[in-house]
Design goal:
Blueprint (H helix, E strand, L loop, with lengths): L7 H10 E11 L16 E12 L6 E4 L4 E7 L2 E3 L1 H4 L4 E4 L5 E13 L4 E6 L6 E6 L21 E6 L5 E4 L3 E4 L2 E4 L12 E4 L2 E10 L5 E10 L9 H19 L8 E6 L6 E2 L4 E5 L10 H17 L7 E2 L6 H18 L5 H17 L14 H6 L4 H17 L1 H15 L3 E2 L1 H12 L3 H8 L7 E8 L5 E9 L10 E10 L5 E11 L3 E3 L11 E6 L6 E2 L3 H10 L6 H16 L5 H11 L6 H18 L5 H18 L5 H13 L3 H12 L11 H13 L5 H10 L3 H12 L4 H13 L5 H11 L11 H15 L2 H10 L8 H13 L5 H29 L1
Parallel strand pairs: 1-10, 7-8, 16-17, 17-19, 20-21, 22-28
Antiparallel strand pairs: 1-2, 2-7, 3-6, 4-5, 4-7, 8-9, 9-14, 10-13, 11-14, 12-13, 15-16, 18-19, 22-23, 23-26, 24-25, 24-27
Helix pairs in contact: 3-4, 3-5, 4-5, 5-8, 6-8, 6-13, 8-9, 9-10, 13-15, 14-15, 15-17, 16-17, 17-19, 18-19, 19-21, 20-21, 21-23, 22-23, 23-25, 24-25, 25-27, 26-27
């Protein structure tokens, strides 16, 4: 990987020297089908021919083009043939003696990928069909064609491709087949990382979007959606198109810049590493967004959010693009915010801000407390840094900060700033200052000061209420105390709402007073609430206007412990759950107390997304934060509570389905496992619970973990579901079995071999280390530290990240494991910074778990 890296300094130097007029790329994909020769260990390749026309500011200067390929057949620069062995080193093509105007032609053999990077090739086990798609961000288009792989060297692209008979090929522009070759319309100027090719016998559905603007201009956008043929029976394309059209309406209403890229295809593709990718005119999504079984409303909301997130990128990212990955937030933070903003205002998912507060912000809070935290606008030295910066800071914290900015500057000023930004920088590249200047124009606020506080410093503040009451039970003073960690001491300006809650006559916990205030410095008084009746609960950051960790005064925390379920407002309730989880993560609330709150009140949770998040948090609390001596009892309590809620849930409801999945995740006793087996074989039944194929696999996993489902049982399950999805589930279950031989085989298949595809690597890792198998996998802790540097050097960065993150010995939660991580970091100071960051983050998670366990142990001793 290091030889394939590109530094920011190199990119800046090349951008100062070169400008690109256009690309022509031809791909011959006919080699995608057919068997490889037996015993042939060379990668399967395809022909890629690229013509780049570009200018150079200094005649006679030297530069380079990017290409990662097994071999190069021919290179021609300005009509002169160059010796590929002399100019190509495996990742770069040396360009000497450049002219003012240049033409580079590269004929290469590029490799199909099994890691989801570059041109990914997938063979469907169900019918043997082959499917291709590309995924490039941040820098993998050079695995498919020669180019200048950096976001600020934009250019128009004209793609063409020859494909196997019966296939269809899609790219960014509209395409047609001429004499057996697919030819695509030239794109607008775009960056290399958002070009795309999708090819294969995909099931394809079409629709169209029409819009007439106030000036009478008519816009028609052809819409398409595709998936593998094996998923066609599950594909609800009508709902995808509905959300797509609602999103296009919303963005046209608010951005005053018509969608600029012609058609709008959306491809749901197999073995995808990401949620989705914003390739203009040809957006790609992971095919898990096509639901093979019954799912909850939260799954449809998540899909809608991702569709709208990628659509927002058509403006924030594709039309206007950051110059370098330092300003990745200029697209990702905005798309994350606009995804929720548009979803709430334009679709049926009107509770999207609850999900944002409870789910997305949890990701941000975790990332912002890691030792690797960074400002929203980051210091990205190279491409490996960039790859890791697609994180909770860049997405969720950035989106939270923008939500705070809307409250700070005003909605109208924010949207007007966006409109000016698009018009001013269309098809260009920007930096932080370009956006701040337009927002300052429209809001009249000092954006430089706001940026320094929110975008250019790291860390999360905590806000705690202080309440003083009179003898008569009235508020005489209410203040908000702001604190910051010693490592990141910045105190920021917060626009917050402070809500006061107390019991109503009906017994509900409801808000009876609210005030908005600008919190600045360590202590801010809220004069508007003086004189109010004494509250039972003070909720700082009510309505979730700012980005902070909410803390509680003693009275408020006591109220939540006793009456959290009586809080009627779903957003307020979600904020309280999030705050309680942060207290648990920070070692300020015993894990068993959080588990107890979930067991007591989660059954009353109306928002299904919040309920699912509570289940995920509870699993983490029990596995990592609870004192070891309490885990057995905690597991029993969780299983009993989950089964109780499962049995009383409304038959056929999404709550019933959610509790069924949670019950499976915590089941361990003979009786629990017998019930799961009975639900699978039909000897047991819970009224209304439809055990479809996806739920069958959810039940098979704990049976495999506890040795009930053996290899034969899992093979029989696969025969019921002999599909790509079924194979991933089976591989996960196989790796989860409680056997030393199984663990050795799983470890070798991931760490010592590159035979598995990215999806099966992920499945194997997720099955390998189970909470009940701590002793069984203990021997792999030293093996992990011995292997990761080699894995990082030999494998693609995506697989390297999966292995280093996924196989860190979190279950060996002892000071000795922390010491082993420290020893590795000390002995590998010259290791790639991205690799060190991954180890450091996991080490910090483990240290946090030990602190939380100490808190939970103290609860027992107290």
């Amino acid at each position: 990987m290091p030889g394939e890296n590109l530094s920011r300094d190199e990119a800046q130097e090349r951008a100062a020297l070169l400008s690109v007029d256009g690309y022509e790329v031809f791909l011959d994909l006919r080699s995608a089908v057919g068997d490889s020769q037996e015993g042939d260990t060379t990668p399967r390749t395809f022909r890629s021919v690229t013509t780049i026309r570009f200018r150079c500011a200094e005649a006679g200067a030297a530069s380079f083009a990017d290409l990662i390929a097994p071999s190069v057949t021919a290179v021609s620069l300005n009509g002169k043939d160059l010796d590929p062995s002399e100019v190509f080193d495996g990742s770069r093509i040396a360009l000497e003696d450049l002219r003012e105007e240049n033409e580079l032609v590269v004929d290469a053999q590029c490799a199909y990928s099994r890691t989801g990077e570059g041109m990914h090739r997938f063979v469907d086990p169900e019918d043997g069909e082959v499917y291709l798609y590309t995924q490039y961000e941040p820098a993998d288009s050079r695995r498919v064609f020669a180019n200048f792989e950096q976001p600020d060297l934009k250019a128009p692209f004209r793609f063409s491709a020859r494909a196997p008979e019966g296939w269809t090929v899609w790219s960014n522009g509209a395409g047609e087949q001429v004499d057996g070759v697919w030819q695509f319309a030239e794109t607008k100027p775009i960056s290399t990382y958002i070009t795309a090719v999708v090819a294969g016998p995909y099931h394809y559905v079409t629709d169209s979007y029409e819009r007439v603007f106030e000036d009478g201009t008519r816009l028609e956008i052809p819409l398409g959606a595709m998936c593998r043929k094996g998923l066609a029976k599950h594909f609800d394309a009508d709902d995808v198109f509905l959300v797509t059209k609602q999103g296009l309406d919303f963005f046209h209403d608010h951005f005053d810049f018509p969608y600029p890229f012609g058609k709008y295809d959306q491809a749901f593709v197999p073995e995808y590493n990401l949620g989705a990718m914003e390739n203009p005119g040809c957006v790609t999504f992971r095919e898990e967004f096509i639901f093979r079984g019954k799912v909850t409303q939260a799954s449809y909301e998540r899909r809608a959010n991702v569709i709208l997130h990628e659509m927002a990128h058509m403006w924030f990212g594709d039309l206007v693009t950051m110059r370098w990955w330092d300003d990745l937030w200029l697209k990702e933070s905005f798309a994350d915010f606009m995804g929720s903003f548009s979803m709430v205002e334009a679709t049926r998912f009107t509770n999207g801000w609850i999900t944002f507060a409870n789910n997305r912000k949890a990701w941000a809070y975790r990332a912002d407390q890691l030792p690797s935290t960074h400002p929203v606008t980051a210091d990205i030295r190279d491409l490996e840094d960039a790859k890791l910066n697609f994180d909770g800071i860049t997405y969720a914290k950035g989106a939270s900060v923008l939500k705070q900015l809307v409250a700070y500057a005003g909605r109208d000023a924010f949207l007007e700033g966006a409109r000016r930004y698009f018009k001013r920088h269309a098809y260009g590249n920007t930096r932080l200052g370009d956006l701040l200047s337009v927002l300052e124009e429209t809001s009249g606020r000092d954006m430089a000061a706001w940026s320094r506080a929110w975008l250019e410093t790291a860390g999360v503040n905590s806000l705690t209420p202080q309440v003083t009451l009179s003898a008569e039970g009235r508020v005489t003073e209410l203040a908000v105390v702001q604190e910051a960690a010693e490592s990141h001491p910045t105190l920021r300006p917060h626009r917050v709402a402070v809500g006061l809650y107390r019991r109503s006559e009906a017994g509900d916990l409801v808000r009876y007073a609210r005030a908005e205030v600008d919190v600045e410095g360590p202590r801010t008084t809220v004069a508007e609430l003086v004189g109010a009746e004494a509250p039972e609960l003070v909720l700082v950051n009510d309505d979730d206007l700012t980005y902070c960790k909410i803390r509680f005064d003693e009275t408020s925390l006591a109220t939540l412990r006793e009456r959290l379920g009586d809080l009627t407002d779903p957003l307020a309730r979600a904020l309280c759950w999030s705050a309680l989880w942060n207290l648990t993560r920070d070692g300020l609330m015993p894990a068993r107390d959080f588990v107890g709150l979930v067991l007591r009140f989660a059954g009353r949770e109306t928002d299904i997304g919040v309920l699912q998040m509570l289940h995920a948090w509870t699993g983490t609390a029990h596995t990592h934060y609870a004192a070891p001596g309490w885990r057995e009892e905690g597991g029993r309590l969780l299983a009993e509570g989950a089964l109780r809620e499962l049995r009383i849930a409304e038959p056929g409801s999404q709550h019933q389905l959610t509790w069924a999945r949670f019950f499976a995740s915590v089941a361990s006793s003979d009786a629990d496992l017998q019930l799961l087996q009975g639900l699978l074989d039909g000897t047991a039944k819970i009224d209304g619970l439809d055990v479809d194929q996806e739920l069958r696999w959810a039940f098979q996993l704990p049976l495999a973990v506890h040795g009930v489902a053996d290899e034969r049982a899992l093979a029989a399950e696969l025969s019921r579901d002999d599909t790509a999805s079924g194979k991933r589930h089976q591989v996960r279950c196989l790796a989860a079995r409680p056997s030393a031989a199984v663990k050795a085989q799983a470890w070798a298949s991931v760490v010592e071999s590159d035979a598995l595809s990215n999806a099966l690597v992920e499945a194997t890792i997720s099955g390998f280390a189970q909470p009940s198998q701590r002793a069984l996998v203990a021997e792999y802790a030293p093996k992990y530290f011995a292997a990761i540097e080699r894995v990082w050097a030999e494998r693609s960065i995506q697989i390297g990240m999966d292995v280093v993150r996924g196989l860190f010995p979190h279950l060996q939660d002892s000071p000795e494991t922390v010491a082993a991580a420290d020893a590795w970091l000390s002995a590998h100071e010259s290791a790639p910074p991205a690799l060190r960051r991954l180890v450091l983050e996991s080490r910090d998670d483990l240290s946090r778990a030990l602190r939380a366990q100490a808190c939970d142990t103290g609860a027992t001793e107290g």
